[in-house]
Specification:
Blueprint lengths: L1 E9 L2 E8 L7 E9 L2 H7 L5 H7 L2 E2 L3 E8 L10 E4 L2 E2 L16 E3 L2 E2 L7 E3 L4 E3 L6 H4 L2 H17 L6 E5 L3 H13 L4 E6 L2 H4 L7 E4 L11 E4 L6 H11 L5 E4 L11 H7 L2 E4 L5 H13 L1 H7 L3 E7 L2 H12 L5 E6 L2
Parallel strand pairs: 8-9, 12-13, 12-15, 13-14, 15-16, 16-17, 18-19
Antiparallel strand pairs: 1-2, 1-4, 3-5, 3-10, 3-19, 5-6, 6-11, 7-8
């Protein structure tokens, strides 16, 4: 069966190609319906990844956040017409100690292998998750993004000591919003404090216990543990401020992506006995946890509707480029593609 694949062949240039898609007894055929643009997609689109990386990975179909509708399933796992979230991580093999999203053998859609900018997706059943009925599809489109925050929380619970009274979230963007929302939903007694640089963005965090500008923290400000959700050139400043504010033997969870090495206040890390750890991507278990959260706390999805930004009906290459160009200039929120190819 011929499938339309929309690949980025060079920065800011998409091209339509036709490829055979496997139709066999082991793959579910899914038609994408709602896709969401991530910062990682933008780094490829704008060409701000290192040149060797671009040369190695392009041409490639972008997008790793999305949902779709089952067309056919010879395995009998899903019914035709069911709405499913698509898991972009494609593990190859298992490891006793490393999760699927950290295995070097794993592939990831939209980063080294084609993402969801396709007419159809052929997927093994394990890489799909059934969506709850009534969930806003524009919110469901970025379930993968929410699962990344849920994954980071799981690692935080595994690595941190049990004094978790005050948690600092450095970063007032999308990731900081989702992470602080999940923490407050899962642990309502926890004090969640958001630290950012933009008063307009901080105004979105209505569920947080406190919010502060980075240059206006009160004297004696302290947290038990911290999450860094900044990334980019400002990541080092955010991490070092967290290190200054954190109490002894706390943890700092690093989530922001930076292309450049970041200098860290190692003396304070040693003096306080801090533990820094990274979290990246997610796996099937994290998707399952997010879907359970949607079912048990439907108000979470209501809050996430605040992140739905521009919504673009997409019918071809020009619409994709227009959506990506508009996404560059948004202040906050997720750009959603109504995939009407």
């Amino acid at each position: 069966m011929l499938n339309k694949v929309y690949r980025l062949i060079q920065p800011r240039r998409f091209e339509l190609v036709f490829e055979d898609i496997p139709l066999d007894s082991t793959h579910v055929l899914v038609r994408p319906t709602h896709l969401s643009i991530c910062h990682a997609d933008q780094r490829y689109y704008q060409g701000i990844r290192p040149e060797p990386v671009l040369k190695n990975k392009l041409p490639m179909a972008l997008i790793h956040e999305g949902i779709g509708q089952v067309v056919s399933d010879p395995t009998g796992t899903y019914r035709p017409g069911e709405a499913v979230a698509m898991i972009p991580n494609l593990p190859a093999g298992e490891d006793e100690f490393a999760a699927e999203n950290y295995l070097p053998s794993s592939h990831f859609r939209g980063s080294g292998t084609d993402g969801f900018l396709q007419e159809y997706i052929a997927s093994v059943p394990d890489r799909l998750i059934r969506l709850p009925e009534g969930l806003n599809p524009q919110v469901a489109a970025f379930t993968e993004f929410v699962s990344v925050a849920r994954h980071a929380i799981g690692r935080f619970l595994a690595f941190s000591h049990e004094r978790r009274t005050r948690i600092g979230i450095w970063g007032d963007g999308n990731l900081g919003y989702v992470l602080s929302l999940l923490l407050k939903t899962m642990f309502p007694e926890m004090e969640v404090i958001v630290i950012g640089v933009n008063p307009s963005k901080l105004a979105y965090f209505t569920f947080a216990d406190e919010s502060w500008l980075t240059d206006r923290l009160p004297d004696g400000f302290a947290v038990d543990h911290a999450f860094e959700c900044v990334g980019g050139p400002a990541a080092a400043a955010a991490v070092n401020q967290a290190i200054e504010c954190i109490r002894p033997e706390g943890t700092v969870s690093l989530l922001g992506v930076s292309e450049d090495p970041a200098p860290l206040a190692t003396r304070l890390i040693l003096e306080k006995g801090l533990r820094l750890f990274g979290s990246s991507r997610s796996g099937r278990k994290d998707f399952e946890d997010v879907i359970s959260l949607y079912r048990e706390h439907p108000e979470t999805a209501d809050y996430l509707e605040n992140l739905v930004g521009q919504v673009f009906p997409v019918h071809g290459v020009q619409d994709i480029a227009a959506a990506f160009d508009a996404d560059i200039h948004k202040m906050m929120g997720k750009t959603v593609l109504l995939w009407e190819e």
